Amino acid sequence: MPDYHFFDNLVAAIPDLQPDSIISRTLYTTDQLKVIMFGFAPGQELSEHTSVYSAALYFVQGDADITLGGDHLEAHAGTWAHMPPQMPHSVVARTPVIMLLLMFTAN
Fold first, then answer.
1. pLDDT digit string (tens) for 80-94?
2. Residue 10: left (phi > 0), alpha (psi -120 to 50), or beta?
3. Coil vs helix vs strand at 76
4. Which residues neighbour 25 within 8 Å (Cβ) at sequence distance 6 or greater?
5. Whole-angstrom Cα Rg for the chain
6. How far from 76 is each of 8, 26, 50, 97, 107, CA to CA, in Å?
7. Do residues 37 and 15 make contact, with C-beta atoms less than 8 angstroms apart?
8. Is 104 exposed, middle or buried (0-12, 13-18, 19+ CB in 10 A)?
9. What is the pLDDT of residue 15?
10. What per-residue confidence (pLDDT) applies to 107?
11. Phi/psi at 36 (5° precision)
């Protein structure tokens, strides 16, 4: 068994989005890292919250409004952001969105 994980198409990890839905799929988990793919139908959101872990967001597809701390930003395919632990953040999809979340779980 190989000592790596390979996805040739991250978009395919999320099935077709139904209206008014959010899909999440954990792709990889270790003691140091958790990788989760999210699919958001337009108008769906992750309301403002915090995490005990630092994290990075990578927007694979679509357009969203995000908050990081007190800043309101626009995200689109190719947008990347890193957040330290305890930073308030939120995501609101304007179009169908596929987003990769990397949570760094080691100190």
1. 999 999 999 999 999
2. alpha
3. strand
4. 13, 14, 36, 37
5. 14
6. 21, 22, 22, 9, 30
7. no
8. middle
9. 83
10. 61
11. -130, 135
